[in-house]
Design goal:
Its main location: membrane. InterPro entries: MFS_trans_sf. Keywords: Membrane, Transmembrane, Transmembrane helix, Transport. The chain has 546 residues and is an all-alpha fold. It has 2 domains: 210 residues, MFS general substrate transporter like domains (Growth Hormone, Chain: A, Up-down Bundle), CATH 1.20.1250; 224 residues, Up-down Bundle (Growth Hormone, Chain: A), CATH 1.20.1250.20. Helix content is 78%, strand content 0%. Helix 4 packs parallel to helix 9, helix 17 packs across helix 19 and helix 17 packs antiparallel against helix 20.
Length: 546
């Protein structure tokens, strides 16, 4: 039974003078919240301040900053430690295979996490620490090994092992962390704030990527940090680690989560409307006497039959791998079609982005990463890699700009139009780059990459939110209680994010061999072909809620 407005006010103890002053200032907001609870039977999260949504988006800024550093330097780092060509594809295979297998498990686990800090934030913190560890290993692996091992052959072998391990750990955590971040946003925001939050995510993703690529384009060897540290890679690690730690801390303090152990609707509602100025731990809010006595009154009312409190059983909280697979396979068809379209998008996007700096160095600038490091060919290749960083920076800036253009276009062309345009422009731009590999035309067309990037980070997750909203509305119309059972927002976001890992697996198996045989030019041609196929799928197969 839902806690009604009258019973709620009867259950409240007389507030103190200080609390009364604070409560009076938010009386209208609480009244609106109470009406929402009474009408729908489910608690709608209150409106979030723009500042809190910006703080929540800082995780995407830090993640994309580190991603940009990896995209710019991972290929040169792997080649500089002497990684054999036949192992290159293996680097891109290990992490996505692990991610594809474990991502739904983590999504389900976060749906049922009973930590007092919340369901999503413990996973976000853990994955953030793994990201830092992976980045430290792949940017500093050769320096670390040379400090402990003196023999040159052993140095080379262990440098390759440590660098590969760092790349795998970083990719694993950076891909994983996106699912809990999106589920965290969906848990604590209303439908309107979810849309705003996703646009802020796209905005800060672009800004983080732009600054990350700019960091890679700067010659740090001639700066104070360059003279203080051993190598340029250590300078990059110091800057990236500092930025990520700050962003992750701000994100984790952005919006409080309601722990699963307080999942009954009455308590969740109290946690939302009481002491709205506080953004500390939910546990701290419950410990204050006002809320504790209120909960006591509600408990007494429940025992006397005035309201009913429901909770999940332990069997519902614990999903075995078998039941998890059954849940994934039983997803409605429109969820599966959305996942397939997301797979096409990431296959196209990653096949271009992972090899873009190498493409600029080898195809556009006609250099070679395998030439002696003091040769003209190698220096030309290095200049092409730096120019590729500027191209990726243009992509990131255009992604941020387009995230705001999306808000303007959405009322006119809808999610279907936004989805289709993103794939179409990316397919055309990569095709033109492959046909005409010129420095200036390539840099100009990089601006269209951002359209695809912003689309992939917003539209599919907006569709997930629309699907959940539609399902909740149908349940309410049928008189059912709106609770997450079996398949929640976490596992749906995880299933969508799994497509990133699956795209990496496909590219690691197929594209790596094609690059060895035909060169880097095949990457942009492949990206164009897959994106244009994705256009057709987005137009005819994906379901859009009207």
């Amino acid at each position: 039974m839902t806690l009604m407005k009258e019973s709620f006010h009867r259950a409240l103890p007389p507030p103190s003078e200080v609390a009364k002053a604070d409560m009076d200032s938010t009386r209208e907001k609480e009244e609106a919240g109470l009406q929402s609870v009474s009408r729908t039977g489910a608690v709608v999260p209150r409106k979030r301040a723009v500042g809190r949504l910006v703080m929540h988006s800082m995780a995407m800024f830090g993640r994309e900053f580190c991603y940009a550093v990896e995209a710019a330097f991972v290929t040169p780092v792997l080649l500089s430690v002497g990684l054999p060509k036949n192992l290159y594809s293996l680097v891109w295979l290990i992490s996505p295979v692990l991610g594809f297998v474990l991502q739904p498990v983590v999504g389900s686990a976060s749906d049922n996490c009973t930590c007092s800090w919340g369901r999503r934030r413990p996973y976000i913190l853990g994955l953030g620490i793994i990201m830092l560890l992976g980045m430290a290993l792949y940017l500093n692996g050769d320096v670390m090994i040379s400090a402990f091992i003196g023999e040159r052959d052993k140095q080379r072998t262990w440098a390759i092992v440590i660098t590969m391990m760092g790349v795998v750990l970083f990719d694993f955590a950076a891909d994983f962390i996106d699912g809990p971040i999106k589920a965290y946003l969906f848990d604590v925001c209303s439908h309107q704030d979810k849309e705003k939050g996703l646009h802020y995510h796209a905005l800060f993703t672009g800004l983080g990527g732009a600054l990350g690529y700019l960091t890679g384009a700067v010659d740090w060897g001639q700066t104070v940090l360059g003279f203080s540290l051993i190598s340029e890679f250590q300078v990059i690690f110091f800057i990236a680690a500092l930025v990520f730690i700050i962003c992750l801390t701000v994100h984790l303090r952005s919006i409080p989560e309601v722990p699963l152990l307080y999942e009954n609707e009455e308590t969740k509602f109290l946690l939302e409307v009481t002491e709205s100025y506080k953004y500390s731990s939910i546990e701290e809010e419950i410990k204050n006497g006002y809320l504790k006595s209120t909960c006591t009154e509600i408990k007494a009312a429940a025992e006397s039959g005035k309201c009913a409190v429901t909770s999940r059983t332990e069997d519902q909280r614990r999903m075995t791998l078998k039941s998890l697979l059954k849940t994934l396979l039983s997803m409605p068809s429109h969820y599966r079609y959305l996942c397939v379209s997301h797979l096409f998008g990431w296959m196209a996007f990653l096949s271009n982005m992972l090899f873009f700096t190498d493409f600029m160095g080898q195809v556009v600038y006609q250099g070679s990463p395998y030439a002696p490091h003091n040769s003209t060919l190698y220096l030309t290749y290095k200049a092409g890699v730096e120019m590729g960083c500027w191209g990726l920076c243009i992509n990131a800036i255009s992604s941020s700009v387009y995230s705001y253009v999306q808000k303007i276009l959405l009322p006119y062309i809808g999610l279907k139009g936004l989805y289709f345009i993103g794939y179409l422009l990316f397919g055309l731009s990569t095709g033109l780059i492959g046909l005409f590999p010129n420095v200036y035309s390539t840099l100009a067309l990089c601006s269209l990459f951002g359209v695809m990037s912003s689309t992939l980070y917003t539209v599919p997750f907006q569709l997930i939110a629309e699907y959940h909203r539609e399902e909740e509305s149908l349940k309410l119309q049928n008189g059912e209680q709106v609770v997450e059972q079996g398949r929640g927002k976490g596992i749906d976001c995880a299933a969508l994010t799994c497509m990133v890992q699956l795209a990496q697996i496909i590219l690691g198996v197929g594209l790596g061999l094609l690059v060895i045989v035909a060169g880097s030019v095949v990457t942009v041609i492949s990206a164009s072909t897959v994106a244009l196929i994705g256009c057709c799928f987005v137009a005819f197969c994906v379901r859009y809620v009207e």
